[in-house]
Write a structure and sequence with these properties.
The protein has 567 residues and is of the alpha/beta class. The protein has 29 helices and ten strands. The chain folds into three domains: 149 residues, Serine Threonine Protein Phosphatase 5, Tetratricopeptide repeat (Alpha Horseshoe); 107 residues, Rossmann fold, CATH 3.40.50; 167 residues, Glycogen Phosphorylase B (Rossmann fold), CATH 3.40.50.2000. α26 links the parallel β6 and β7. It starts with 12 loop residues before the first helix and ends with a helix.
Length: 567
């Protein structure tokens, strides 16, 4: 939604030049300018977008000015022109001077924030904060970088120090509450949010954060708060809060309100959401969205680009056959480790590596633009029925590898059921539920006589030793890096009689090739695709969902799953 032009009454250039001395005031050194001052000719020129006049005023005023400050002010001109790249270059030059002040650091942090480069902004923000530790403006810029990079402990530390001199400052309190939530301290975060709402009743940001916290456990209740907060925003601002709707998107999808869920999911590309949304690489951002064109030519070529992890990519590929039928000439861009699987599974799809994007604009083929892979389900899966009606295997396993691993495992099993297991990672590890994912909780599978196969990616040496110490046999493939050799990983998974796993990428790969999978859910709520109380996956044909009962231990839950899978 575009923003209207500000209706500030700014004097004309000629009149302003007569009223104001042609020099740069000390107050005008920041991208976030102070209150408009009609007696400041440089600021007037910038506000009136008379950049030639601004350059002239700067040239006349900079004779006795430190070079770093002159460069900083030159950067204000280029940022006002909308040239972020030039501004970055100019401000970096200003930082070379040993005596440089804090403002170029602060301004470059703002530039990087606008560019979505918070990782580059962080060291500069830290430097500026150390130079002026009591500055609320700089402190908030620093905290914003820390929040974006999930440095929760640092957010809390910086916010606490600034709150000493800025008691009950709303933004600082919200930042600390966000840091507490990011640091997996939900109870403390909730208490602080409640305190904020007492001080600032119906504050939309605080209500959104309250819904975010609640949503980690209860999407139904969270959606109610999001709706209430959004109603307040609409009443006060006359337009919706984009970031709030984006935050609520997965909760709407989890509660099966696909209409709102997919609509809000598309907001992940909005500037208001920033780097916490759906991030596309620069080469793609400049291309038109092919699925949003008024006139689409199926004879031209269209790129399909990914923006999620490999598990979500598989889930969203469940809609690829629909896309091929509608758009015809599609070129799918993916990582090298995914290419053989995609090429084999979708023979009518052209598959290329990310390097193709560099030369794509230069190719002579006729093009429509691009479509994000994550936007396909919103187009083709608007209802539960549209998921369940399609529910079939759509990923093809490497046949030669399957035969090899199937024989190898059956020779080792000697008639026992072969069960692949993955016990950590994915959704619940990101929620710091690692204790619930301990390998000792998975011993019931071994105790039921299955030959267990390690399908867990990453270093599992300690868990393997614990299993060995208990006297259980555990098949591992240490020579295969599951994160790299996805074809082998998929073939081993398909060669098992069944799989028991927490919700990781393995569930998507195995489910998409038709394997029997039991998902262990240590908490009532998991990834959105598993819904609120679903017992079977809506996306894959043979994937059952096992939720832990209130009085049930994780070990008992795993045993309950094993009774079904180990047969």
């Amino acid at each position: 939604m575009g923003k209207g032009k500000q209706k500030n009454r700014i004097p004309s250039q000629r009149r302003a030049s007569k009223l104001a001395p042609k020099k740069v005031h000390e107050s005008v050194d920041s991208i976030n300018a102070p209150a408009f001052d009609k007696n400041n000719s440089f600021q007037v020129a910038l506000n009136n977008k008379d950049f030639e006049l601004a350059k002239k005023i700067l040239a006349e005023s900079s004779k006795n000015m430190p070079e770093w400050r002159r460069l900083n002010l030159e950067g204000l001109i280029t940022i006002s022109q909308g040239d972020l790249v030039a501004t970055e270059r100019i401000l970096l030059r200003s930082l070379r001077y040993p005596e440089v002040g804090v403002k170029p650091y602060k301004n470059l942090v703002s530039v990087y924030s606008q560019m979505g480069r918070l990782r580059d902004a962080l060291p500069l923000a830290e430097k500026a904060h150390n130079m002026e530790p009591d500055s609320l403006e700089i402190g908030l810029l620093y905290i914003n970088c820390l929040l974006d990079l999930a440095k929760a402990d640092d957010v809390i530390r910086v916010a606490d120090k600034l709150l000493i001199k800025n008691k009950n400052q709303r933004q600082l309190m919200l930042a600390k509450a966000s840091g507490l939530r990011a640091g997996f301290r939900p109870d403390e975060s909730t208490l602080l949010v409640d305190e904020i709402l007492e001080l600032y009743p119906n504050d939309a940001t605080a209500m959104r954060l309250k819904a975010d916290i609640l949503g980690d456990k209860d999407s139904v209740a969270a959606v109610e708060i999001y709706n209430k907060a959004q109603a307040i925003v609409l009443k006060e601002r006359k337009k919706p809060d984009i970031a709030m709707n984006w935050n609520s998107s997965l909760h709407h999808l989890r509660t099966r309100d696909f209409k709102k869920g997919w609509e809000y999911w598309e907001l992940g590309f909005d500037k208001a959401v920033g780097t916490m949304g759906r991030n596309l690489i620069p080469q793609v951002k400049v291309l038109p969205r092919a699925d949003l064109l008024d006139k689409f030519d199926p004879e031209k070529w269209t790129l399909i680009c990914v923006e999620q992890g490999i598990g979500d990519q598989i889930l969203f590929l469940s809609a690829m056959e629909d896309a091929i039928a509608e758009f015809k000439n599609l070129f799918f861009i993916c990582e090298a480790r995914m290419k053989p699987i995609i090429s084999r599974s979708f023979p009518d799809l052209q598959v290329g590596l990310p390097g193709l994007l560099e030369s794509w604009p230069l190719t002579s083929i006729e093009k429509n633009g691009f479509i994000p892979l994550g936007s396909l389900p919103g187009r083709y899966r608007p209802t539960i029925e549209s998921f369940t009606n399609y529910k079939k295997s759509f990923i093809q396993v490497n046949g030669d590898l399957y035969v090899q691993y199937h024989k190898q495992l059956r020779d080792m099993a000697k008639g026992r059921p072969v069960v692949g297991i993955s016990w950590k990672g994915g959704f619940w590890e990101s929620q710091k539920k690692a204790k619930a994912l301990g390998i000792e909780n998975w011993f019931p599978i071994f105790e039921r006589g299955a030959l267990c196969v390690n399908l867990q990616y990453g270093n599992t040496s300690e868990d393997e030793q614990l299993i060995k110490d208990k006297g259980f046999e555990f098949v591992t493939f240490p020579q295969i890096d599951y994160k790299v050799k996805l074809d082998d990983w998929l073939a081993i998974a398909a060669a098992c009689d069944g799989i028991i796993s927490v919700s990781t990428a393995l569930v998507h790969f195995a489910g998409a090739c038709g394997q029997k999978v039991g998902i262990v859910m240590p908490e009532p709520q998991g990834p959105w695709i598993l819904g609120i109380d679903d017992e079977w996956s809506i996306a894959y044909p043979n994937v059952a969902i096992f939720r832990r009962n209130r009085e049930e231990s994780v070990r008992d839950l795993v045993d309950r799953v094993a009774k079904v899978i180990v047969t």
